[in-house]
Write a structure and sequence with these properties.
heterodimer; A: 536 residues; alpha/beta; five-stranded parallel β-sheet; 18 helices; 19 strands; B: 333 residues; Rossmann fold; eight-stranded mixed β-sheet; two-stranded antiparallel sheet; 11 helices; 32% helix; 14% strand; binds flavin-adenine dinucleotide; binds thiamine diphosphate; binds iron/sulfur cluster; binds magnesium ion
């Protein structure tokens, strides 16, 4: 029979390679998420949230400790720069990153998870770290993970630096800190406590390199304000839980985080009234907004625009200041009196410089902070420094970041090899996302407990809360395997081979057929696809 | 307490956190790809995408037992340029206006052969459906023939150079409704809604869908295939060439059409609307019109033409009111 119609065989169009029409090609490209970019410790937050949302908690924790050995402490005390940068804040509310981190940190302690075992290295060297604060411990951790033999010398009876002696236990309980430090020591790091280093040269003997992380422990004083009723915030905070009770009205002088910690601590020690006296306006408090809000909730009073003129006979004499243009202040001429039982000074700490007396070529600023190059090297060969003792934001997170990066620099110094230059990756800014694909979802709030004790104010997230919160993450710049590109291509030019951990998680473009329309790039929720001009 | 929650991956094609029953057919590695690569549709063609979405779902719904009948139009032309075919399903093309009648014949043939389990899907553009093919379509409806008829609505005769159809929206510039005179573009008060006309035939199932809402679209194909008798699906498919839009923005415009109320998504059975796809906060129609060259004359040198934009807004508002598109609080479809 003669065919009554033209017959075309199925799929014969495949011989027509429409890819030749293309002027631009899509490529999968990982971008750095704003949170990752903002984390001073360099955590890959997006990556560990992606694991946490799959309930792969161990893997998520492992991803954190690639960069930061202390997730439980950080989840509590870090000022979470990540959350201030989080893209989700533009959409509804930031992802509560620190709460998920804290959950993972606590889970690791409960489950007894260990860090990866350090490699055995034939060329391992002995490295000295002075100061067992976050920066020194972070350097020790990363050097140990690289296979070096690390000894840490610490003046105090316990390790942790300001995490132990500064940050109050109602924000960071000491047991958590101890658990994370003990786990770190199990890597084979030698810690010598009660060892005050006074002679740097002799301490360094036998060590191929040295990392200094002394912190900033020299409290600023006021020349004429002294006496038995005056103390520094550090003195109060050091052993606050065991300190003698306070009574009456206590004044704290200063406007930074330390002042607020001292104020809240004084309240817990029994002070009937606590007043924060501050020279500038309340807008100039350098303490974090959250800290200020919590202090207010705990009935801490604030007395801005007051400068101490005199303190005697338990009476504070204050000059009332007037704000002028350009943020300057001038005395109004008025004075006030405030009867207090105790005056606590929280006007900053400087760096002790005695260790450098024989190293005149190591330069420092008037406040004692030491100059280093971008690899944390001082001008003395083999001597590195980081944390609060160099110019920085003075946070645990930055201190930990310094320790990590200094460890890499020390490792490179020891093997006389150049430091690898980090790849330049574009940031997944909000405009690169297609938020149509995200649902609105309220942030989980932390449960709170009684504020009157030294027990922690905030509770750790439950597993359910942690998973919920992790799922709020947009996965900015990094494929979360939503298959949208695969679905929306009108030319079926994306193939699925979910096997490899390449960008696109195993999806691949079939450039034989891709016409370069750009739909996939436009639709990808997280900005993981970029269009690149074809060379002509 | 939080329930299992997926704040991303509800509208996405797939979702690695959810079990595969949630995923769309389009997320599956072994999806049918009824319309495969190598076809000659323009870059970013909404119709090519829509046809694969619909026919893949129909193939799944019938476990592969489906014959497709195609009217003349872009879809037919770009998928079957002799000697090539991009179809991986049994597929037949006859004429511009007779797809519904041919489909009726195929369904009758299947019955005669004793294989009524082989189902029939007819498909065509808005011209082939709402204009020249409407008589055949109405007959197919009225006889309750066992066919799902799918119209891919790109709002003009695209294949022959963008002429107006009875589905072209008011004010849209086409080759036959040029930007000239006092009222440039297509005339207000003309055109027809074939989904509403289909509903008026009292057929088993009628739905509108959009390529921007894939989960909804696939569910409608599956629902349609669960009925016997005449069924109608009207899919909104933006056309970069005819609308003067960027190829990468095809789904953006499709979404905006739905979110503004210009293209209402609803379902009906046996003559009654049964469900509407709710939009929480309708966007102004202006947001939809902007970025389409066919509406560029509304945003001329002297600023936006408020009066004519408002007239288009009134159309969207009427859709919102007629179909109850804005959900009462707490009730989201
Ligand atoms: C009250 C208070 C609260 C804070 N709260 C927060 C917070 O919530 N979040 C945050 O991110 N940051 C906070 N900070 C800042 C943060 O604690 C510091 O930035 C961080 O601890 C700096 O780390 P580091 O390792 O450089 O120094 P440190 O933590 O100060 O550690 C230095 C260590 O070196 C030891 N040391 C010094 N000299 C010698 C020596 N000669 N021999 C042997 N050992 C020596 C010290 O005893 C100490 O243990 C707070 C600071 C204070 C004071
Ligand atoms: C009887 C008849 N008249 C005219 C044509 C020419 N023709 C082919 S396709 C087409 C327009 C198709 O428009 P539509 O159905 O909307 O499909 P689209 O191309 O827009 O997808 C026309 C007029 C024809 N093939 N047959
Ligand atoms: S949404 Fe996720 S990846 Fe994006 S900035 Fe926030 S936490 Fe980071
Ligand atoms: S669209 Fe989805 S699957 Fe495709 S790259 Fe983006 S996140 Fe990955
Ligand atoms: Mg058309």
């Amino acid at each position: 029979m003669k065919p009554f119609a033209i017959t075309l065989d199925p799929s014969t169009s495949l011989q027509n390679h429409t890819g030749s029409w293309r002027m631009q090609r899509p490529v999968f490209r990982r971008l750095i998420s704003p949170c990752n970019k903002a984390c001073p410790a360099g955590e890959n937050i997006q990556a560990w949230l992606a694991l946490a949302e799959e309930r792969k908690f161990f893997e998520a924790w492992q991803e954190i400790v690639k960069n930061n050995p202390f997730p439980a402490c950080m989840g509590r005390a870090c000022y979470h720069f990540c959350e201030k940068a989080c893209n989700r804040a533009v959409f509804d509310e930031t992802v509560a990153i620190h709460c998920v981190e804290r959950f993972l940190g606590d889970k690791a302690i409960q489950e007894g998870w260990a860090y990866p075992a350090p490699p055995q290295r034939a060329d391992a060297q002995k490295v000295l770290v002075i100061g067992a604060g976050p920066s020194g411990l972070s350097a020790a951790y990363h050097l140990a993970l690289k296979g070096h033999h690390v000894t840490v010398l610490e003046r105090q009876a316990e390790a942790g630096g300001m995490m132990r002696y500064g940050i109050p236990s109602y924000r960071l309980e000491k047991e958590t800190l101890r658990a994370e430090i003990e786990r770190l020591l199990r890597l084979g790091v030698t810690l010598q406590l009660n060892t005050d280093v006074t002679d740097l040269a002799s301490a360094r003997q036998g060590f191929a390199a040295c990392y200094l992380a002394l912190g900033a422990w020299k409290p600023r004083q006021l020349k004429d304000v002294q006496g038995p009723d005056v103390m520094t915030a550090l003195d109060l905070l050091k052993e606050a839980q065991h300190a003698s009770p306070l009574s009456g009205c206590v004044a704290v002088y200063g406007g930074g985080n330390t002042a607020f910690d001292a104020a809240r601590t004084a309240k817990r020690l029994g002070a009937a009234r606590v007043v924060i006296v501050y020279r500038n306006t309340a807008e100039h408090f350098s303490a974090h907004a959250e800290e200020i809000a919590l202090a207010q909730q705990e009935n801490i009073e604030m007395l801005p625009l007051r400068v101490i003129r005199r303190f005697s006979e338990k009476t504070l004499e204050l000059d009332v200041m007037l704000p002028e243009k350009e943020g300057t202040l001038s005395p109004s001429g008025k004075t006030e009196k405030l009867a207090v039982t105790r005056l606590i000074l929280a006007i900053g700490q400087e760096v002790e410089t005695t260790l450098f007396k024989d190293l005149s070529h190591v330069t420092h600023a008037p406040d004692g902070t030491v100059s280093v190059d971008r690899h944390f090297a001082t001008s003395e060969p083999g001597l590195f420094a980081g944390g609060d003792m160099i110019p920085s934001s003075r946070t645990i997170t930055e201190a930990i970041g310094h320790g990590k990066n200094a460890a890499a620099a020390i490792d490179a110094y020891l093997s006389d090899s150049p430091l690898p230059t980090p790849d330049k990756i574009a940031t997944a800014t909000y405009d690169k996302l297609n938020t149509h694909y995200y649902e609105h979802a309220q942030k989980s709030e932390e449960q709170r407990s009684n504020a009157k004790t030294f027990h922690e104010v905030f509770k750790t997230f439950s597993e359910q809360e942690a998973v919920y919160e992790a799922r709020r993450c947009f996965s900015c710049g990094n494929c979360f395997m939503c298959d949208t590109c695969y679905g929306v291509c009108p030319d079926n030019a994306i193939c699925k081979h979910r096997t490899s951990n390449t960008p696109g998680n195993g999806l691949a473009f079939n450039y034989d057929y891709c016409k370069g329309c750009g739909l996939c790039a436009r639709e990808c929720p997280c900005g993981h696809i970029q269009m690149e001009q074809e060379e002509k | 307490m939080h329930k299992e929650f997926y704040p991303k991956g509800v509208k996405t094609v797939g979702n690695r956190l959810r079990d595969p029953t949630f995923h769309t057919v389009q997320a599956q590695e072994n999806r049918p790809n009824a319309l495969t690569s190598g076809h000659r549709a323009c870059q970013g063609c909404g119709e090519a995408l829509g046809a694969r979405y619909v026919i893949d779902a129909a193939v799944r719904a019938t476990e592969g037992k489906v014959v497709v009948v195609n009217a003349t139009g872009c879809l037919e032309v770009f998928s079957s340029q002799s000697p090539e075919s991009a179809w991986q399903v049994p597929w037949v093309h006859s004429l511009f206006g007779n797809a519904a009648a041919v489909a009726t014949g195929v369904a009758a043939a299947m019955r005669a052969k004793g294989t009524p389990d082989i189902r029939v899907v007819a498909q065509g553009g808005d011209g082939g459906t709402t204009d020249i093919g409407f008589g055949a379509l109405s007959g197919m409806f009225e006889r309750a023939d066992d066919v799902l008829y799918v119209c891919y609505d790109n709002e003009a005769y695209m294949n022959t150079g963008v002429q107006r159809s009875s589905a072209t929206p008011p004010a849209a510039r086409t080759a036959t409704t040029p930007v000239a005179g006092q009222a440039p573009g297509n005339v207000f008060g003309t055109g027809k809604s074939v989904p509403k006309l289909a509903l008026a035939h009292g057929i088993a199932y009628v739905a509108t869908a959009s390529i921007a809402f894939l989960h909804d679209l696939e569910a409608k194909v599956f629902r349609a295939m669960s009925f016997h008798g005449a069924r109608y699906l009207h899919v909104h498919v933006p056309c970069p060439l005819g609308w003067g839009t960027q190829p990468e923005d095809t789904l953006v415009h499709a979404r905006n059409a739905v979110y503004s109320g210009m293209f209402p998504l609803f379902e009906g059975e046996y003559g009654h609307v049964t469900r509407a796809f709710h939009i929480e906060n309708p966007i102004p129609v202006e947001m939809y019109l902007k970025g389409q060259r066919r509406f560029a004359h509304l945003f001329g040198k002297d600023g936006p033409n408020a009066e004519r934009i408002q007239a288009l807004q009134a159309i969207a508002d009427a859709h919102i009111a007629t179909f109850g598109l804005v959900a009462p609080q707490g009730d989201h479809a």
